[in-house]
Amino acid sequence: MRAxxxxxxxxxxxxxxxxxxxxxxxxxQSAESGNAAVKRGAYLFAAAGCATCHTDTxxxxxxxxxxxxxxxxxxxxxxxxxTPHPKHGIGKWSDEDFIRALREGIxxxxxxxxxxxxxxxxTGMTDTDMKALKAYIFTLPAVARASRPHEVGVPFRWRxxxxxxxxxxxxxxxxxxxxxxSGKWNRGAYLARAVGHCGECxxxxxxxxxxxxxxxxxxxxDGPDGESVPNITPDPxxxxxxxxxxxxxxxxxxxxxxxxxxVGSLMAEVxxxxxxxxxxxxxxxxxxxxxSLPPIRTKPPADKPK
Length: 306
Description:
- Helix content is 34%, strand content 5%.
- By secondary structure, the protein is mainly alpha-helical.
- It folds into 2 domains: 31-169, no CATH class; 198-292, no CATH class.
């Protein structure tokens, strides 16, 4: 989830920096199964908010052609071109390349991605969902636009340090359902932790840029584009503990808040392109999951939803 503002204050957010990559579809698939995969991939594409970060909408850029700037405390990152263009995009990627990128954070040439690409969350996606997402992205127009290099200072741009970072903050592998929880809870957890990667923006980071998971979803003052990202744990004073399930679901669908206002800034984009396109059932699972988390009180209180 990504930060947004209401009357100058940030509000519940959705979906951070998304660097989904695509490859060619499996020629062995039947037309029927291929169509089904593309349809599911389109849904996952919306749930992950890929278009929000990979399309330079301010400059009327082409869908997924890259160029959007994301400012962070570690530098400015630019969403890459992830259209299926064979030179400037990712049209030459194989299925194995695609899954390896999302599961392990490793590029086709063997180099490590910087963790602004939220592979620590995407690693939780199933292979089936990864392939479906890829199948949909590869149906989109290829755009001949080179990706813009990131503007990141040392030591964060040193990819040679990534093995150390990964040993501290990255555990690869698909999401494992909790057998003690309901199917709805597990679906919400999968959407929040893996596909929607809410923790990438809502969880505070250490000095090395890793997630401080002891304060999962407790908010941060150093969110993307310099915005505060609010606490979305069920704490009644500094989080969303006083919100009803219907109020949370309504914000995710329409952008409306309990006080009758509407979200703006980044969250308005997210509602339009992502959470507003989820099914009512999936929004309900997200609500179930968020309300089940341990409440964390922020000190000093971050700007909070009201």
